[in-house]
Structure formats: structure tokens, C-alpha cells
Amino acid sequence: MSTRPDSRRSWFRALLREARSLPTLLLVALIAVAGIPLVIMLTPEKHVEVFGQDVGVGARVPPLSLSGPAQISQIGNARFDLTGVEVWGPIRPRLSIGPLTRPADNGPVLGPHTVDEAGGAVHTLVEGFATWYLWGAAVLVAVTIVASGLMGCLRLLVALRRARRKHHQPVHWDDHAGPIGRMTTVAVTAAVLIWGGAGVAALHGTASGLGKVTSLSDLVGARTVSPSPVGPPVTGATGAVIGDSRAARIGGPPVGAADGAEADPDDVACARSADSTAAELEMLRGEQVLNLACAGASVPAGLRGPMVRNGVTVPPQVGRLKQVQDLQWVVVAVGPNDLAWSDFLLYCYGLPTCDDRLSDGEFEARLATFARDVGALFGDLDALPGRPRVVVTLSYDPFPSAFDPACPDMRGPAGTAGLDQEKLDLLAERNRRLNDVLADGASRYGFTTASPNLTPLCASSPDRMGADLQGLDQQDPFHPTAIGSLRMAASAAAALAVPREEQQDNPVSPG
């Protein structure tokens, strides 16, 4: 009658011995260190509706720290920490939020009603996270069983190798099935306990942090208020161009130079030329186009906020856009100034190598800030009266893909290291990542993208119309020439010619 209790005690002692064995300890450590992050990556987000917005609830891959904040992921892969939600352990919530969706009645996204809904929002988020957490537990068990199977195979291989050394001593499965089974039991139990403890800490930290949320602004953090309308109403313009010196066409003939008309102070301060993107679009489309682009403009200083240039305070371009009556389309060209692209060019020209950690870290920081600013800008454009069509012009790469030592624009000024193939590849990759931010944001808002097909420096244009870009020996290097400005306008015109319902995901470029 006592054989059953003795058998249980014997099995339990064997389980404890197995828990102290090296293979089991290695397996549990592997699950704790690599298995948890893997499960977080594999478990899909749970989507819920909060304040009328779609929010994906999941967890971030934990950095090497005992605790950390939850995270918000927005368009353009922009990520920032929710400092009010601090979580101990590896499971730290992440909320994915796309473009804000306006209500069907076109009412405000944020307002007093969000305060009334705060309690329900917190409950929804916690419930969504709990659902994700349970799915994660199932994924962890599956991963642990697979890992246990692999470790079991490894144990058998080790046993076979030892048997070979002992003159082919036979290896019996029954001698190893028990230890492998007990190892799997220990690993699954340990995984569930680790996940359970981390989940309790995560739910506690999440609930405590979200208890302070009273609106969507509290959840994602405050964002710069959209610029107010600036200046008198503008009539007659079908389209408008906003952006930086590429769209303004710095270095070209000043506005009004051909007909002797007096230029507006903003035109002079912003170096807007008579052959800018807006002027070329007027010619190509036969419509009146308002040119708001300004040399040196970035998203926060120029497009969404005022900027001072040559002693003149130029109002936000988005604020001027809001005064355009019956606006049908907008072309936007922005990016290099936000990343201070000239800094990276000077760095690569001046030093033997420019792919060091300092430069890379600075680029990553600027790109993350740019992604957040682009999200705010695209939200402004999406909320324009009448919802005009928006074309986002991607950034061109001024250099060819292959290094040419005979090209003076690659050798650089005298006394500098100049460029080489590795530097060209690095600059091209960074330009691609800049464009990924623009394209991702455009896709989320349903905007069109245009990719200017400009001939790079030291390359011959197929149509022999002349250089598209100014070289180092010219006043404004890397900026479009008159021909380049025409090609930029042509790419935007081609994008505008594609009906919205036929719009493709790929950038539009003129054939």
C-alpha cells in the first residue's frame, strides 16, 4: 500500500536532482535570457480601441536592465518611452499607434469627452495587455518544449559520443527518456514561473502608470500644437509647394527678376527662384501654384514653426497653407535639414573614415527626432480643410553608386580626405533610411510619394540636357540646377497625375 507514496517521493527526488543538473540549468538560463525576448518578438500585438483610435498592445524587447519604461511606437518607426509607466522585469508594455483617426462627424480627436472615457480606456488597455500576455504564455510553453527537445537531442549526442569512447557501449533510450522528460518538466515549470512573475510585475506597473491617464495626450505625451492660420486668405491657387532649399531652388534666378516685378520679402529671405519646383509645376500643369518653400527650413523651424532667415521672420508654411482657399494638392520636400545633412557630408569629406560610433549615434538620434516631427507634420497636412491631395517628395542621392577617383566632387576640396566607396555606401544607406521614414509616414496617411530621377554628380544625363545638380565648384553644391528643378517638378506632376484609387505603394518617378 505504501508503494505509491514511495514512488511519488522517488520521482520528486529525481526531479530535484534533474533540476540541479548542468543541462537543465543551461536550458533554464537560455530560456530566461533568450527565450523571453524571443517570445516577445513572436507574440503578435493585441489591437484595441482607445479614445476612438486603434492601439496595438504588446511588449518591447527588453534592454539589459532590471526595470524600464513602457514604450510608444508611432509612424516612421519612431519610438519613445512612456516615463509614467515604469515596469520591473523583462515584460515592458509597448503601444503601437498609427495616424490619429478623426471621428465620423469630423469632431475633435481630443477633448473633454476623452476625460470621461479615461477609466474605460485604462480598463481596455489593461485587458488588451492581459490577452497578449496569455498568448505569450502559450508561445513560451511551445518555445520551451522545442528548446527542451533540442537539448534532449544534444544530451543523446553527448551520450553516444561517450559510448563510442567506451568501445561502443550500447546506449538505451529508456536510460535517457526519464531524465529528458524530467528536464522538460523542470524547464516548462521554470518558464511559466518566470513568465508569471514578470507578468505580475508588468501588470502592476502598467495599471499603476495608466491610472494617471485622463486623455490620449496623457497616454502618448504632448505634441506641438498645429500651427494657426497665418496671413490673409489666398485665392486662385490650385496647389502649393512647401519644403526646403531644394524646392525653393536656391541659387536660381530670383523671383521677379525676369519681369522686373518687386519680390516679396519672404521670397527674398527664402531664396525662392523663378524656376523653383512650384514655378515648374505651374508650367507643367497650367495651374497657379503657391510657393512656400524656404531655404534652410526644417519641420519644426520652417514648416510647423516660424523661422528667421536673413533677418526676416518667415511664418510657418503650414500656417500659410491653412489660408489657401479651395486647395487641391500640396507637394512637400523635407528631410536633409532636419538631419543636418551637411554635417555628415563635411564629416565624410574631412576624415579618412566616417562610420564611427559617434557619427552613427548622432544620425540615429536625429533620425528618431525627424520621424516624430514628420508624424506631426503629416497629421497637420491630413487635417487641412478640404483634405487636399499630398505628394511627399523623397530625398535624392547626389552621388553615383560607384566611386570615381577622377570626379572632383568625390575628391573634395584641397586638403580633405575626400570620399571613397565605403563612404558613398554609408551616405546612400543613410539617405535610404531617411526616405523610409518619409515613405512609411506617407503610406500610413494615404499620401503619394514621388522619387525625383536626378542624374548624380559626375554622371552624364541620358537626354544630354545638362547637369541636374550643382557641384562643389558652384555656389550651392548638391542642390538642383534649373534642369534638376524641372525633373523634381516632373516627378511630382507624375504623382499627381495618378488617380488616388490607382495609387501604388511604390514611389512615382517620371519615365
UniProtKB/TrEMBL annotation:
Keywords for the protein's UniProt record, in alphabetical order: Membrane, Transmembrane, Transmembrane helix
Q: Name one Pfam family in it.
A: Lipase_GDSL_2
Q: Where is the SGNH hydrolase-type esterase domain?
A: 241-484
Residues crossing the lipid bilayer are: 21-42, 132-158
> What's the name of the protein?
GDSL-type esterase/lipase family protein
InterPro entries in the record: SGNH_hydro, SGNH_hydro_sf
Biological source species: Pseudonocardia nematodicida
